[in-house]
Amino acid sequence: MEVRLEVDGKEIDLNEFVTKLLGKTIEGMVSTLKGVKEDWKSVKIEVVR
Question: Cβ distance 3 to 23 under 8 Å?
């Protein structure tokens, strides 16, 4: 699993624990959504405040 985090255009280094934590959390949430196929390949999330 590959997880990338970018804040204001700067990529943030993630250690293995954070990579797994974010990846598995997002994977679990996305897989429960209606209309999402079981064999999805990638997810892109953008948060703006």
Answer: yes
